[in-house]
Design brief:
Blueprint lengths: L1 E2 L1 H6 L1 H9 L4 E3 L5 E3 L2 H7 L5 H11 L21
Parallel strand pairs: 1-2
Antiparallel strand pairs: 2-3
Length: 81
């Protein structure tokens, strides 16, 4: 359901109840946000760092090995023109 911010504020308990029941609730019109249950959030969020997942995939599908770039404030970064 789509809620105006004012309606969502006035009926927050209803917004939360519907989200917990598995119905994502859209709040706002200009820059809307979606309210979902913690269970849905946990189900959909990445379980591991994307870079680590990509490295693992490369290793599984043909033995491709990558070396992770160095981390830290002194690493060099090259930006494209």
């Amino acid at each position: 359901m789509n809620w105006s911010v004012a309606d969502a504020k006035a009926r927050l308990s209803e917004v939360l109840r519907l989200a917990r029941a598995g119905e994502p609730q859209v709040v706002g019109a200009q820059e809307p946000c979606v309210v979902i249950s913690v269970a849905e959030y946990e189900r959909t969020r990445p379980k591991e760092h994307l870079g680590r997942a990509l490295l693992a995939i490369g290793e599984r599908v043909g033995g491709v090995e990558f070396e992770a770039p160095p981390r830290g404030p002194d690493r060099s970064v090259t930006m494209p023109d």
